[in-house]
Specification:
By secondary structure, the chain is mainly α. The protein has helices spanning about 5-50, 60-105, 135-140, 145-155, 160-175, 180-190, 195-205, 215-235, 245-260, 260-270. Helix 2 (about 60-105) crosses helix 6. The mean pLDDT is about 80.
């Protein structure tokens, strides 16, 4: 017995609600991890500062700071996985919401953009409402990537050989029986496709000259500070020096980070400006 449209839309709505609840759960976990990261970082910094004046338990404090920073790194890794899971759940919820909206013809809930269309010179595009707000293009499915939108547009606007049509119909029959696969495929399309402004930012970064080349001294200072921090910390841990002199280059490194934080953040934002899976 064929499933009724109302039943199909209800099933999509339930799936969307389930994925939305999953997204909210990941969001709460992400928030708690953020608090944990902050606590571990501040705790490690406090241990380092306490060890600076030559505290009687300097080695113990440094070990505690190292442990806290290791925990911080572990939380950063875990945080990334939780945020990725949150993005997956949000994308799956959107896929199911839009699927329900297509069944119900709720056009305002469908966010898939429609191409402008070829105009009135095309033989049938306007008559059949192939493109636009309430169009066949938006009804057919969730086309998240630009390549997919171009392919679907070409199929709607151009004829095809009988063999190609039969192959497409066979693919439709196969996909119709695999809703979970369709959901995963549409979700991946939403996650991997860069937004237009993000792609432009990435291309601008890739084609621009490295900003560090404008300063001859900054790269060498950064290398020197890093080497001095590691070398002095190793010497202090090995008992070659009795004072934590490595704190001085560490403070210098932090000062450089604060000084160029905006520029570094801008560079990383452009370099990694796309949705992550």
């Amino acid at each position: 017995m064929q499933e009724r449209p109302a039943e199909r839309a209800g099933a999509y709505r339930r799936q969307a609600a389930m994925h939305e609840a999953e997204r909210a759960r990941h969001e709460r976990t992400s928030r708690f991890i953020s608090y944990g990261r902050l606590a571990l970082f501040l705790g490690g910094a406090a241990c380092l500062l306490a060890a600076f004046p030559g505290h009687a338990r300097t080695v113990l404090l440094i070990a505690a700071a190292a442990s806290l920073f290791v925990g911080f790194v572990a939380l950063v890794w875990w945080h990334g996985r939780v945020e990725a899971a949150e993005r997956h759940a949000a994308a799956r919820a959107r896929v199911n919401r839009e699927a329900a909206a297509r069944v119900e013809r709720a056009w305002s809930e469908i966010t898939t953009p429609s191409p402008p269309g070829p105009g009135r010179e095309h033989a049938y595009a306007d008559d059949l409402d192939l493109f636009g707000h309430a169009s066949l293009f938006r009804l057919l499915g969730s086309v998240a990537t630009e390549a997919g939108r171009q392919t679907l547009s070409a199929w709607l606007l151009q004829g095809a050989a009988a063999t190609a049509i039969r192959e497409r119909q066979a693919a439709v029959r196969e996909l119709a029986a695999r809703p979970a696969f369709r959901e995963r495929l549409a979700t991946l399309g939403l996650l991997v496709e860069p937004r237009p402004h993000e792609l432009e930012a990435f291309l601008a970064w890739a084609e621009s000259a490295p900003w560090l080349r404008g300063s001859r001294w900054l790269p060498w200072v950064a290398r020197l500070v890093s080497a001095a921090t590691v070398g002095l910390a190793a010497a202090h841990a090995g008992g070659l020096i009795d004072r934590p002199l490595w704190v001085y280059p560490l403070v210098a490194a932090l000062a450089l980070m604060v000084r160029y934080e905006a520029r570094i953040h801008h560079t990383f934002s452009r370099a990694f400006s796309r949705e992550r899976i």
